[in-house]
């Protein structure tokens, strides 16, 4: 009788632990780690494309997930995280119920932190549109280590110097800034002298280089 009770209790505890366990996921591209669920929050680190994170949970009404990455804790955009189900990867956010991702509430931000977030430069007004595509589901059907969309071309020192010396007004777009995402046509891109392969703009608090031909982000200044 005692043994049966002990086994039953242990089984119940194991089930309870698994029900609230983090979900292992892989980043489909180099991905910002932010202090809160939104582009208005500060970037505190970068999750390398192909690296694994532990997803604590995702917000039901917004595409942001709370994650642990090594010794770092923060929030990442759910479109670029995928979990392995069987032999295939599935994007976390649209499949969170099937994968069994925990639903978490949007954290309450105090006034002091809200003021700090506004200083990040992403702005707090309405978004001008949304970033287009990007490496969504880049690791779906692939294995970690064969991640698409995470590589970017290192700009020359002359390009970097010009961008840093000539800041432009930041804009806000829905979605996260990643290499391969497209910038909408209504967003002004700025020229870099003698550099026809690049234009630049500040999106969601980060300066980015854009290919003027297809308007895709090719480099992010972090």
UniProtKB/TrEMBL annotation:
Superkingdom of this protein's organism: Bacteria
Signal peptide from the UniProt entry: 1-21
Annotated keywords: Signal
Domain SH3b: 21-85
Protein's name in the database: DUF1236 domain-containing protein
């Amino acid at each position: 009788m005692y043994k049966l009770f002990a086994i039953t209790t242990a089984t119940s505890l194991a089930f309870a632990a698994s029900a609230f366990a983090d979900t292992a996921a892989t980043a489909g591209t180099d991905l910002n780690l932010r202090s809160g669920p939104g582009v208005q929050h500060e970037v505190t680190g970068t999750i390398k494309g192909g690296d694994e994170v532990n997803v604590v949970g995702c917000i039901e009404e917004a595409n942001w997930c709370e994650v642990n990455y090594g010794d770092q804790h923060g929030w990442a955009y759910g479109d670029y995280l995928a979990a392995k189900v069987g032999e295939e990867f599935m994007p976390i956010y649209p499949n969170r119920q099937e994968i069994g991702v925990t639903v978490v509430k949007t954290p309450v931000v105090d006034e002091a932190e809200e003021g700090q977030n506004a200083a990040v430069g992403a702005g707090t007004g309405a978004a001008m549109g949304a970033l287009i595509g990007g490496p969504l589901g880049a690791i779906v059907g692939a294995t970690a280590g064969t991640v698409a969309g995470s590589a970017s071309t290192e700009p020359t020192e002359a390009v970097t110097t010009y961008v840093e010396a000539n800041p432009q007004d930041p804009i806000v777009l829905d979605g996260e800034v990643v290499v391969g995402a497209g910038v909408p046509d209504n967003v002004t891109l700025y020229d870099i002298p003698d550099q026809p392969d690049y234009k630049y703009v500040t999106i969601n608090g980060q300066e980015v280089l854009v290919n003027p031909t297809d308007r895709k982000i090719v480099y992010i200044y972090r």
